[in-house]
Specification:
The protein is built from eleven helices and nine strands. The protein is 47% helix and 18% strand. It is elongated.
């Protein structure tokens, strides 16, 4: 595991066969493992001795996994414990409900045990790094984005968009930091809404730079997604300027603009994420 610390996992699962299998597997991988078969028991175990990560089934015999997650997230003692949902529920609404409660990941049954192991490892790594998000938009950046790009490159069928907000420096010099940060937040929300409307809950949005947004999605969605983002942002950019400047057409030396670049697995091969970033950021 690359560290002397033995991470502690709590598996909250009422299917005894699944619980025993996961316990045996993760103990062989070097983890300390505790199990609970009821939701109330799982919450109590977390309060007594918070684990490093919880693998949580949604369908439990007393309270469901959503309620378990809600209680963990609303308690100061357990609010930062990574949670991976393990469930038979496949509907988009179920995934969104789990993620809205602060789950770190979501695996549907039947699952690939190797994939679950990697997701556990990645969630623990993220937790050890602390918050890795942009301070203005609260979207992932840095190591967390690199991790997702690496996962993407290992997938034979991927697509990604780079959405760049151009000329923000010139805008900031004229109107100030507060207004430029408001623009970044607004652009971030419009991108997230467009991705939500045209993509899937598995899509990822982060930053390659403060003004470059990276979106990882499925090739089937990328063209519609790019068009939706372009349409929404291009309609909105002028309204970020004060009314008097919009009416006079005075946008300064360089006007805010959007550039969208698409890459797919078929555009490669890409040796590593550095080569992928170079391909994205090459103007």
């Amino acid at each position: 595991m690359g560290t002397n610390k033995r991470h502690r996992l709590l598996i909250i699962e009422d299917d005894l066969d699944v619980a025993d299998m996961l316990t045996a597997y993760f103990r062989v991988q070097g983890y300390d493992v505790q199990t609970a078969n009821w939701g109330e028991d799982g919450v109590r175990a977390c309060q007594i001795a918070p684990p490093d990560l919880v693998i949580l089934d949604i369908r439990l015999p007393d309270i469901d996994g959503y309620e378990v997650a809600r209680r963990l997230r609303t308690s100061v003692r357990t609010s930062r414990i990574p949670i991976i949902f393990l469930t038979e529920k496949r509907d988009r609404s179920d995934r969104l409900k789990g993620l809205s409660l602060g789950a770190d990941d979501y695996i549907t049954k039947p699952f690939d045990i190797q994939e679950l192991r990697l997701r556990v490892r990645n969630a623990l790594r993220r937790a050890s790094m602390g918050p890795i998000t942009n301070p203005v938009t609260d979207l992932p950046e840095g190591a967390l984005v690199d991790e997702r790009l690496q996962e993407m490159l290992e997938n034979p069928n991927w697509a990604a968009l780079l959405v760049s907000l151009l000329n923000l420096d010139a805008f900031r010099e004229r109107y100030g930091f507060v207004t430029s940060d408001d623009i970044l937040r607004a652009v971030s929300l419009m991108i997230q809404n467009a991705v939500r409307d045209t993509g899937t809950p598995n899509d990822f949005i982060g930053h390659l730079s403060p003004t470059d947004f990276i979106i990882i999605t499925h090739p089937a969605h990328v063209e519609k997604m790019a068009e939706r983002i372009r349409s929404r942002l291009e309609q909105a950019l002028d309204y970020f300027y004060p009314l008097k400047d919009r009416l006079s057409g005075d946008f300064g030396q360089r006007k805010l603009a959007i550039r969208i670049k698409e890459l797919r697995a078929t555009h490669g091969p890409f040796v590593d994420i550095s080569e992928l970033k170079d391909a994205f950021l090459k103007r």
